[in-house]
Amino acid sequence: MRTERKPTRLDRVFARLDREPERPAHVDMPRMSRHRMVLFGAALVFYLAIVWAVLITSWLVRLDWQVMFFRPYQQWPEIHAFVDYYVVLGQRGPTAVMVAAWLGWRSWRQHTLRPLLALGVSLLLLNVTVGAAKYGMGRLGPHYATEIGSNEMWLGGDIFPSGHTANAVVTWGILAYLASTPRARRWLSALSAVTSLGVGLSTVYIGTHWLSDVVLGWVAGLLILLALPWFEPVIARAETRIFALRARWRTPREGTAKAGPLGRPVVVKSLPDRADTAPEPVPTGRPASRSPAYLAPGPHTTRAERSPVTPAGSRRPQHAERHPRGTTSATRP
Question: How far is CA 126 from CA 22, 42, 166, 264, in A?
């Protein structure tokens, strides 16, 4: 007795991918609930507390200097090659391309632009908020520190908060934000949190960031993800307008072929020499006799009276004794 093979998890994944593309109707849009508002407020307070602790050169700045003098890249040199590759997960170019490719395929399959638009809005918020904080506070990195124990603020730097960490939080966290099921959202949230923290600690290991830079960058990325539900109406309106423009562009224009110039009416005039006569009725049956054919003026001969003509270049000799049709020829001996 032959039994059917039980489909594996990989078979179910490919079966799901082979389905006809459809626009998801069961996905719940994230809302700015009370729980989310509490998290956003707590993260904002924590963000301001870190900035204040660095500004007043508190214990957090002393911890930064202790970690810098510890020099992790000298303590564990065997993982230096791995960290150099792992830190790429926080760079804007490679991560944005990978995530945009995945979300673009998902948008095409589901006939919606929301994943790509959400990614664009999150990256725009990241550039505005983190970029403004970086250049506004102007903190120097460990490699360019000028005075031991100082906070290195307002000296023209651009490393506070950590852009690598914030970019990792936003780029990988947007996958959890756009997840279709609560289970997938939980797993992707944990994965993005671990990945972004690993990217931040990699920059501390290399020595390009202070420890406080990494913590502030992680909180800055979290604030952007928590604030995304406020921009969902903007994303929905942008998607509606883009689809409307596409439908308008695809619809063929009516009345493109006109007899006269564009914008000018065409006036049809009747001929003055021609009298307006009623059209003659068209007979339904076949006429009994055909009307005689029109002949040009001049003498005409019948076809039988015409002399045969040999075309030029023909090898057939002329027949002078050929008689025209309709006459009796002489009897051959």
Answer: 31, 19, 8, 53
